[in-house]
Design goal:
Length: 224
């Protein structure tokens, strides 16, 4: 039987889009959590971290309710003529963004907090605006945190199973990602295909983590 590449490309597409959206959404959240003294900061941080402790099926179930035709988000998307998101690729992206949020926000928050106030104060005395300070001071100094957040978010999205199964189901070419394909092969006793995809994911995860550690180690030595 010919090898089916479609779940691999679909998974890479999902991981790339999810990581890009998380970078745009998660950066301001991480910056706010790192800088604010608001009394509800810990509550927001707890909401962001929920996917780390809740079973994926629990998150998937409530996301399915929210995105469904009677849920608040589903009602909104239907009123806009967009239909509902469950069992569609956009629905997978929405669920993946929520599920992988802590893997983007927490490394960035830790990196921002480690900077302290001194670099920003120096930049301010030189007349840099808040935007200038963020893009010319914060981002370069927080580069290891950005690298860690991007790599972990991308890799975590590739390994998702419970959430994508609950929200996307198993529609070939639309929502059948790599983890679902492996599950299908195991169910139909096609262990050769399952071995091939599973070994590929193990190798990918090892290479990603090894590369991340090597680059972060080099960046750490360069700042010493």
């Amino acid at each position: 039987m010919a090898f089916d590449w479609q779940p691999i490309w679909l998974t890479l597409k999902l991981a790339s889009l999810t990581t890009l959206i998380l970078l745009i959404v998660g950066t301001p959240i991480a910056w706010w959590l790192a800088r604010t003294q608001a009394w509800y900061k810990q509550a927001v941080a707890a909401v962001v971290a929920l996917p780390l402790v809740l079973p994926p099926t629990v998150l998937g179930f409530y996301l399915l309710i929210m995105l469904g035709p009677k849920g608040p988000i589903g009602t909104l998307t239907e009123s806009l003529g967009l239909g509902t998101l469950p069992f569609t690729f956009p629905g997978l992206v929405f669920a993946s963004v929520f599920y992988s949020m802590p893997f983007m926000v927490q490394p960035l928050q830790n990196s921002f907090e480690s900077l302290g106030n001194r670099p920003l104060e120096v930049a301010a005395t030189l007349g840099a605006s808040p935007w200038d300070r963020f893009f010319t001071v914060v981002i370069p100094l927080a580069r290891p945190g950005f690298l860690t957040a991007i790599v972990l978010s991308f890799a975590h999205t590739i390994g998702e199973f419970g959430v994508v199964l609950m929200i996307g189901g198993n529609i070939p070419g639309e929502t059948k990602v790599l983890s679902i394909a492996i599950y299908d092969y195991v169910e139909t006793l096609e262990y050769g295909q399952a071995h091939l995809l599973s070994a590929g994911m193990i190798g990918f995860a090892f290479i990603v983590l090894l590369t991340l550690y090597l680059i972060n180690g080099r960046l750490h030595r360069s700042h010493q």
